[in-house]
Amino acid sequence: MEPDKKMQAMKLEKDNALDRAVYNEQLAKDANLRAEKAEEEARQLQKKIQTIENDLDQTQEQLTQVLGKLEEKEKALQNETPLKNRPKMTTNIQQGSLLDVLKKKMRQTKEEMERYKDECEEFNKRLQMEIIRREEAESEVAALNRRIQLLEEDLERSEERLATATAKLAEASQAADESERIRKALENRTNMEDDRVSILEQQLSQAKQIAEEADKKYEENRSLADEERMDALENQLKEARFLAEEADKKYDEVARKLAMVEADLERAEERAEAGESKIVELEEELRVVGNNLKSLEVSEEKANQREEEYKNQIKNLTTRLKEAAVTREHSEDKIRIISDKLREAEARAEFAERSVQKLQKEVDRLEDELVAEKERYKEIGDDLDTAFVELIL
User: Fold this and answer.
1) Residue 20 needs a FRET pair 20 to 30 A away by CA distance; which of 111, 128, 205, 316 works?
2) Which keywords label this protein (predicted)?
3) How far apart are alpha carbons 257 and 193 in whole angstroms?
């Protein structure tokens, strides 16, 4: 019964291995879907970064244009008279508003860059998680391969034990046949000894009859004077006694041999009974082993089919893992490219921020000059009003 339980356990383990293989295949499919989704997100992120780069380029161009216009306005402001500074104030105010808009746009661009940078880091984390899951799936597939190999080795050992049990059964059957042959030989020998005992008993009874007849004749002829006849009778009596003694000795010898044969027969019968019980046990074990062998053959066919399925699934999983690895390499390359572009965009943003700071300083300087010019304009206006008043007076 134990081999049957072991075969059922092996079958259950193979079913569990198949279930785990299906589960790992589903995990690989999910990983591929997640990898495709990550690639799509990477493409979208790349598009967004490209858009930001274009916005940065446009902003830098606008900044360059504004700087050029500011320089021109400054030169014009320096060349023009103080009376013409009134309409220029509106222009400077408009330029300040434009700078405020540009600063706001730069801040928004910087915030978007920070947000995209965070999204890129999150994408890298998710990609690392996918890599870890794929490595776990590869480890699970390798463990399943090792488990299938161990099950095959257990199946081979079970077949070897079955062959050993079959050989032992053949040896036990041969020993039982030998015991049966010895028992029959002992029975024949016992029958022969019984026949010899019967013959010896008959001879003993005949000798006793002859002795009795001789005694009777001796009694009857005791009164006879024929000495020759007496001698003949005495000789017959001696011969009868000798035959009786020989018969007694042979009877004792035959009884001793009969006891030995009976003891041997009892031991042979015990061995035959033990051999028969062993044969019954071996036949039962052979029947169980035969059933297990049939189950093993069916399980072996199923195992071969499942092994082929496992090989195909492992091949497909290996191909998919290779494709996933290639996709991961492409994704990593894209991420590196995106990271480089992001760093470049950050450098451009920093440069734009520095330009804005310089521009802010220039605006502050121009505002200070504007305030100074306003003061000078006010003083000149006051001087003109005083001069007009003096002229009138």
Assistant:
1) 128
2) Coiled coil
3) 8
- pLDDT tens digits, residue range 24-78? 667 666 766 766 666 676 667 667 666 766 766 666 676 666 666 666 766 666 6
pTM over the 0.85 mark:
no
CA 152 to mean position of chain CA atoms: 14
Helix axis angle, 227-392 to 85-220, nearest 10°: 170
Closest CA to 73 of 99, 101, 92: 92
- Number of residues written out for the chain: 393
Q: Is-contact 112 59, C-beta < 8 A?
A: no
Q: Quick check: is 124 in a domain?
A: yes
Q: In this structure, is residue 8 part of a structural domain?
A: yes
CB 146 within 8 A of CB 242: no
Single out the residue in 102, 136, 158 at which a domain terminates. 158
Residue 353 lies in a domain: no
Q: Tokens 């504004």 sit at which residue?
A: 66
Domain residues for the domain of 141 are 111-158
The DSSP line for 48-109 is: HHHHHHHHHHHHHHHHHHHHHHHHHHHHHHHHS-GGGHHHHHHHHHHHHHHHHHHHHHHHHH
